[in-house]
Amino acid sequence: MKLSIIIPVFNEEKTIAEILTRVNKVRIKDIEKEIIIVNDGSSDNSGNIIKKEISGIKNEVYISHVRNQGKGAAIRTAIKASTGEYIIIQDADLEYDPRDYEKLLRPIIQKKAKVVYGTRLNRLPDFLKDERTARFFIHYLGNKILSFITSILYGQWITDMETCYKIFPKKAVNDMRLNAKGFEFEPEITAKLLKKGYNIHEIPISTIPRGYDEGKKLNTIKDGLKALVTLIKYRFRD
What we know:
This protein is of the alpha/beta class. The protein has a single domain, classed as Spore Coat Polysaccharide Biosynthesis Protein SpsA, Chain A. It has eight helices and seven strands; from the N terminus they run E-H-E-H-E-H-E-H-E-H-E-H-H-E-H. It is globular. It starts with a strand and ends with a helix.
């Protein structure tokens, strides 16, 4: 099986080299990797670092947007360029651990699932670590609420709709009209996979959340409201 690993990048010069190293180190039996990096109009040195890191590596594809269009737009560009049977999304920071690919792929390899999400939220809040500040606790609550609303609207219990780690078959999105340009990609792809009849299998993962002073770009209130509108909109239209 061939796995397309999609990495959207916007101003990640501090972490992009390390995440590419970690992704390249992952070896999974009987799985061929294809890495598609989309530089979404970065204004820092991300583009030059990516070119240096992937120089001479055959299984890595580099695409550059002239201007910043948003995470969703970068993912959509990468999906069109992907050639794998399955796709996984990898953020360019160091929050998510690529070593989790193997356990996320296991239900697919064993033919127990076709879509797998890595859930961070199948747990209570951790006030000593992930939810140590009020801002991150609000972020946790927002994600839990959006996941609950997803479950109610689409009839399947999901604990972490907003997770980055989503694995789905390329054929599931070949005829899917994706419109999201920003972070609303997460609720849109989830809504449309569920409406197509795909059951989402969740696997617990752990992450190392980065702070807003370290480059975190998600705005809990603004992006949370966009996600809510997206969930409601695609419940009743395509």
